[in-house]
Specification:
CATH architecture of chain B: 3-Layer(aba) Sandwich
Helix content of chain A: 25-40%
Distance between the termini of chain B: 18 Å
Strand order of the largest sheet of chain B: 2-3-1-4-5-6
Helix content of chain B: 25-40%
CATH topology of the largest domain in chain A: Rossmann fold
Number of domains of chain B: 1
CATH class of chain B: Alpha Beta
Largest sheet of chain A: 7 strands, mixed
CATH superfamily of chain B: Pyruvate-ferredoxin oxidoreductase, PFOR, domain III
Largest interface: A-B, 62 and 60 residues
Radius of gyration of chain B: 16 Å
Number of strands of chain B: 6
Low-confidence stretches of chain A: 346-358
Number of helices of chain B: 8
Radius of gyration of chain A: 27 Å
Strand content of chain A: 15-25%
Number of strands of chain A: 22
CATH superfamily of the largest domain in chain A: Thiamin diphosphate (ThDP)-binding fold, Pyr/PP domains
CATH topology of chain B: Pyruvate-ferredoxin Oxidoreductase, domain 3
Mean pLDDT of chain A: 95
Shape of chain A: globular
Oligomer: heterodimer
Low-confidence stretches of chain B: none
């Protein structure tokens, strides 16, 4: 049987967790990290516990508690999730763990699906917790068992940083053997270690600083840092994580012979850096985002009194924003080494100058699906609250409502209700109606609602409840009555939750029913205090999967006046023919019926069979 | 071009979220592993999938990173004509473009904000000194039994160029598509393979 398989990076990481003998795995979905738990929860046979937690702080604490008992735990999240979990993270560095604990954080340079480009290695520096930085999906898998061992040896958590191109890359993966031992949970009381009152924290902080020497020693000689010295001492290249494969390819393509230090850990391997500094005249450093390695190299060079020229992001030319790739690395090499390189414009090559050929490509932004109920909710919100109203929003599929004029702010997970409250408390007189999804509400939105109610914010909170965590790939949440593994559990009622927090105006409505939705929003707008409107309708993707079939619609060209009221919904299934000035409905229609309700000329009806 | 010591064959697949670009690259990736060839791929997931523009990079016989440099791809496989033009920058000077001529109008066009360029014009622009294999794969997919099998029609067409045997690719089609649709997809692969002559 072949031991090589074609795998998604996140599936390879999940395999690494199995090979390393992971026992408790928690996490909150977030692109590009979500498939790790998705893969583990979907396994038919498993000898570990896996859960979707309600947010990253909760998830990290669940994994921490597990590791305190002596088992091997893992927590997964995207980079911004670590901000939510930063509170326990920084103190967990003091307490350490008994078994082992790996904190998997997936960064998203270039913001493919994120609100910022933060670099998790900074958290490693900040928390004094070591960090592993794989360069390929294969290395990511291979690093997982090592991460468990390292954590156990150091008795502290280890951060494992992936990036979009690792997590959502695919590769042939050579499988390894599976760890069979399973340490049993056995929490041993030790107040000085587990209870971080000031007296104990002061001691543990000193202990954490002491531990740094051991961490450095362990990582220096780990297989993830590799130094190849070249006989020609002119140029040394240092590359961290995924940047190392781009830098390698750039060197091959440019025909440059350089010493090469591949870095896969933080703290960085100081001895290897010293050796490279001693053997080079100049050093070029490639790493995505922050100059974390570069800063360390500069410190080491200064300590050595080295006059080696260090080239990175400080004075350019390596960019501090966006992903790196082979082209960027080649451009840097060409600039630094004075190599000839054809100038390639940013977006298009000379041969394909769209302006010259007078062809302009239409933008193709991601949009809400045909029939998505968020479109209906937003349509009514806009109609009732008016175009002057303020619509703070949140993070999920509904952020795509930016096209419909109902997303005025997006700050972070759970940042809609709170931002709305702040605007109201500032004295803003315009109507304020914010929107947040069901999963985001359970994540950190509910704290914001509690605060709004408690502090008497006169705003409307719309929970756009599509019964899933749609944007990240349909993970279950506490409102759905299902666990990560598909097992049944209690279905938490949003209405009762809101009422329990003191909300007196709580109404649930089907957003496809435009008339009723409008009536509810009107009352919510008139209500003095915090009103909650839950627009509840199954995500269209889930509806299709669960076998719900609605008849698609068609437009009677005779009756269509070309008023565009349906077109303005922005549904991908509705097209407008500018020549005959008529709307039509294409094959993507899912039959939600919202456009038919809007049409004043009775031109839209179900396709006759 | 894919360069020696780096990659044997570099392929870019462009399309629209929902067209099945990921299944197309999975068929190729799995087939490469069957032939014991190393493979690297990069995909668009998440936010960009909701009807947005998507691009996959696939490097066959590659041990380095998954991202193909500009002007590096041997073949650009485009499931939609305007998306072919959008990712032209990745194709090498003497690369081959295999393009489905059936457009999918983005919402910016259906709502009248932008206009969609003439498909014949897109193709004539791409021609230059490159080989362009343009055909209506969506139409062929319908004939094969289902419009959704367009991605497999395109993989069939591509199979004329890949350093992987058609038998292995077909086997992976059978393994990866829903069991009920195997016959349709096998037919789709075959009509795609016959649609272009190398």
């Amino acid at each position: 049987m072949s031991t090589r398989e074609y795998m998604l990076g996140n599936v390879a990481i999940a395999r690494g967790i199995v090979e390393g003998g992971g026992q408790v795995i928690s996490g909150y979905p977030g692109t590009p990290s979500s498939e790790i738990i998705g893969e583990l929860a979907g396994m038919k046979e498993r000898d570990f516990y896996v859960e979707w937690s309600v947010n990253e702080k909760v998830a990290l604490e669940v994994a921490a508690g597990a590791a305190m008992t002596g088992v091997r735990s893992v927590v997964t999240m995207k980079h911004v999730g670590l901000n939510v979990a930063a509170d326990p993270l920084l103190t967990l560095a003091y307490t350490g763990v008994e078994g082992s604990m790996v904190i998997i954080v997936a960064d998203d340079p270039s913001c493919h699906s994120s609100q910022n480009e933060q670099d998790t290695r900074r958290y490693s520096q900040f928390s004094l917790i070591p960090c592993l930085d794989p360069c390929t999906p294969q290395e990511a898998k291979d690093m997982m068992p090592y991460a468990f061992e390292l954590s156990n040896k150091l008795q502290m958590p280890v951060i494992f940083r992936s990036t979009t191109r690792i997590s959502h890359g695919k590769s042939d993966i050579k499988l390894g053997s599976v760890e069979k031992t399973r340490p049993a949970a056995d929490f041993r009381k030790d107040l000085e270690r587990w209870v971080m009152v000031p007296k104990h924290a002061r001691v543990q902080h000193g202990h954490l600083l002491e531990l740094q020497k051991n961490i450095l020693e362990e990582l220096e000689n780990s297989p993830w840092n590799e130094l190849e010295l070249n006989n020609d001492p002119k140029t040394g290249v240092i590359a961290s994580g995924i940047a190392s494969v781009y830098a390698k390819e750039a060197l091959i393509r440019e025909g440059v012979n350089a010493s090469f230090l591949k870095i896969g850990t933080f703290p960085v391997p100081e001895n290897k850096i010293r050796i490279l500094l001693e053997n080079s005249e100049r050093i070029i450093i490639f790493e995505e985002m922050e100059p974390v390695v570069e800063e360390q190299v500069r410190i080491i060079a200064q300590e050595m009194g080295s006059g080696v020229e260090i080239i990175g992001k400080r004075d350019g030319p390596v960019p501090r924003e966006f992903e790196l790739n082979t082209d960027v690395c080649r451009d840097v090499l060409a600039e630094v080494l004075g190599l000839e390189r054809p100038v390639v414009p940013d977006e298009v090559t000379e041969d394909f100058d769209y302006n010259a050929c007078r062809l302009e490509l239409p933008m193709r932004p991601p949009v809400m699906c045909p029939g998505c109920s968020h479109r209906a909710s937003f349509h009514v919100m806009k109609k009732v609250y008016g175009k002057d109203a303020i619509f703070p929003s949140d993070i999920g599929c509904y952020t795509l409502g930016i096209q419909s004029g109902t997303v005025d702010t997006t700050l972070c997970m759970g940042g809609s209700i709170t931002v709305a409250s702040g605007m109201y408390q500032a004295g803003e007189k315009k109507p304020i109606c914010c929107s947040i999804g069901d999963s985001t509400f359970f994540h950190t939105g509910m704290n914001g609602l509690l605060n709004a109610i408690y502090n008497k914010a006169d705003i409307t909170v719309t929970i756009v409840d599509n019964r899933t965590t749609a944007m990240t790939g349909h993970q279950p949440n506490p409102g759905m009555g299902k666990l990560a593994t598909g097992e049944d559990t209690v279905e938490v009622s949003l209405e009762e939750l809101c009422r329990g927090m003191g909300a007196e105006f709580v109404e649930t409505v089907d957003p496809y029913d435009l008339e009723k939705t409008e009536e509810v929003f009107k009352r919510a707008k008139d209500y003095k205090g915090t009103s909650v409107v839950i627009t509840k309708q199954l995500c269209v993707i889930d509806a299709k999967r669960s076998g719900i079939r609605r008849d698609p619609l068609t437009i009677d060209t005779e009756k269509c006046t070309g008023c565009k009221i349906c077109v303005n919904l922005g549904c991908p299934a509705i097209e407008f023919n500018t020549e005959i000035k008529k709307a039509s409905i294409n094959m993507m229609c899912t039959g939600c019926g919202v456009c038919a309700l809007l049409c004043k000329f009775d031109a839209i009806s179900e396709v006759k069979k | 071009m894919s360069a020696e010591g780096i990659s044997e064959f570099d392929l870019v697949i462009a399309g629209v979220g929902g067209q099945g670009t990921i299944l197309a690259s999975d068929i190729i990736g799995k087939a490469a592993v069957k032939e014991n060839i190393s493979i690297r791929a990069a995909e668009t997931h998440g936010m960009a999938q909701r009807g947005g523009s998507v691009v996959n990079h696939i490097r066959i016989g590659c041990e380095l990173g998954s991202m193909i440099p500009r002007k590096g791809a041997d073949v650009l496989l485009a499931l939609e004509p305007s998306e072919a033009l959008r990712y032209m920058e990745y194709l090498s000077e003497d690369g081959v473009i295999i393009v489905n001529t059936a457009p999918i109008l983005p919402v910016t066009v259906t709502s009248g904000l932008c206009s969609y360029p003439d498909v014949d014009e897109i193709i004539s622009i791409m021609k230059g000194n490159r080989e362009v294999k343009a055909f209506n794969a969506s139409e062929l997919a319908k004939k094969a039994g289902h419009p959704q099998s367009m991605n497999v029609v395109m993989v069939g067409a591509l199979s004329n160029y890949l350093p992987i045997s058609a038998e292995n690719l077909l086997e992976c089609v059978r393994e990866l598509v829903p069991p009920k649709t195997i016959d349709i997809n096998v037919k789709a692969f075959e009509v795609g393979r016959d649609a272009i002559e190398q």
